Amino acid sequence: MSLLSFLLGEKKATASVAKERLQIILAHERAGRGASRPDYLPALQRELVAVISKYVSIQPEDIKVHLERQDNLEVLEVKIELPDVLR
Amino acid sequence: MSLLSFLLGEKKATASVAKERLQIILAHERAGRGASRPDYLPALQRELVAVISKYVSIQPEDIKVHLERQDNLEVLEVKIELPDVLR
């Protein structure tokens, strides 16, 4: 299954109202020994949101952040609901 | 199925060598009437890669970009293979 079809499936399951949404997924797969490394994902996420807000007008309350960890994989998911009128 | 388990499944299927990888997925779901809007995803992707390169040392040849479109969903996938030694 492709990532696109996975996301399309998710979309069908959750989205009933036609809204504009932007979803950023940042998956960091560590090579095992990297667990002691400083975790830069939260800082990176803040910068990514700052970059995106140059393109689309986003409000802090429209941003949902979710972080999951399992084994060597760290997945940061940022969901942004876009306003009806873009900049 | 959660996104994490999807990515873990993908990982099991493809990764045999322990390498450090960073994957960015940018999914843009349009609200239907937005098809005529200028597509800012390629420019946004370049800026995102620039931000990430502040945190990790990446070479242009280690970046793989893939764009999929279906209906109102546009999915940009950026896969970055990280070098063994970070900055």
What does this protein look like?
Two copies of one chain form a homodimer. Chain A is an alpha+beta fold and 87 residues long. Chain A is 31% helix and 30% strand. Chain A contains two helices and three strands. Chain A has helices at 3-14, 41-55, and strands spanning 21-29, 63-70, 73-81. Chain A has a three-stranded antiparallel β-sheet, with no helix packed on it. Chain A is flat. Chain A binds chain B through residues 1-4, 6-8, 10-11, 15, 18-32, 34, 37, 40, 43-44, 47-48, 51-52, 54-56, 68, 70-71, 73, 75, 77, 84, 86, and chain B through 1-4, 6-8, 10-11, 15, 18-32, 34, 37, 40, 43-44, 47-48, 51-52, 54-56, 68, 70-71, 73, 75, 77, 84, 86. Strand 1 (21-29) of chain A pairs antiparallel with strand 1 (21-29) of chain B, so a sheet runs across the interface. Chains A, B: Keywords: Cell cycle, Cell division. Chains A, B: Belongs to the MinE family.
Q: What is the string of SSEs of chain A from the N terminus onward? A: HEHEE
Helix/strand-derived category of chain A reads alpha+beta
Q: How many beta-strand segments of chain A?
A: 3
Overall radius of gyration of chain A: 15 Å
Largest interchain contact? A-B, 45 and 45 residues
Helix content of chain A: 25-40%
Task: Describe the oligomeric state of these chains in a short phrase.
Answer: homodimer
Quote the distance from N terminus to C terminus of chain A.
35 Å
GO biological process, one term (chains A, B): cell division
InterPro entries (chains A, B): MinE, MinE_sf
Keywords (chains A, B): Cell cycle, Cell division
Family (chains A, B): Belongs to the MinE family.
